[in-house]
Amino acid sequence: MKKLEIVIKPEKLEDLKAILDECNANGLMINNIMGYGNQKGYKQLYRGAEYKTNLLPKVKVETVVEDEVSENIIGKVVEQINTGNYGDGKIFVYEVQDAVRIRTGERGSEAL
Questions:
Q1: Closest Cα to residue 27, out of 101, 107, 105?
Q2: What would be the CATH architecture of the domain defined by 2-111?
Q3: Where are the domains of the chain?
Q4: pTM as predicted
Q5: How far apart are CA 66 and CA 43, in angstroms?
Q6: pLDDT tens, position by position, 20-75
Q7: Residues sharing a CB contact under 8 Å with residue 104, sequence separation 6 or more, in sequence order
Q8: Which H or E run includes 46?
Q9: Under 8 Å between Cβ of 7 and 96
Q10: pLDDT tens for residues 68-105?
């Protein structure tokens, strides 16, 4: 099993949810976060003064899926979420040793 942490722009969340539903990801967790990467934020003018904003709003979506499903999700996210600009996001992939469904005690893939 793999845990995917997908960090994207907030406006791409519905597209990502559609991809995860299409790939039969059973569940997801969504967090609103702030951060920056290569773009280092942006500058804006307010009443003649220049302000630098370096923390940008992002969304982090986490899901745990089977190994073969993870590659399918990664491919579709890179293909469909990509705009070619800085700030499109990142996908972090972690190995999951085990999962336990608390309600039934099921373990591993059955717990997903």
A1: 101
A2: 2-Layer Sandwich (3.30)
A3: 2-111
A4: 0.85
A5: 42
A6: 999 999 899 999 999 888 777 677 777 888 777 778 899 999 999 999 999 999 99
A7: none
A8: strand 42-46
A9: no
A10: 999 999 999 999 999 988 889 999 999 999 999 999 99
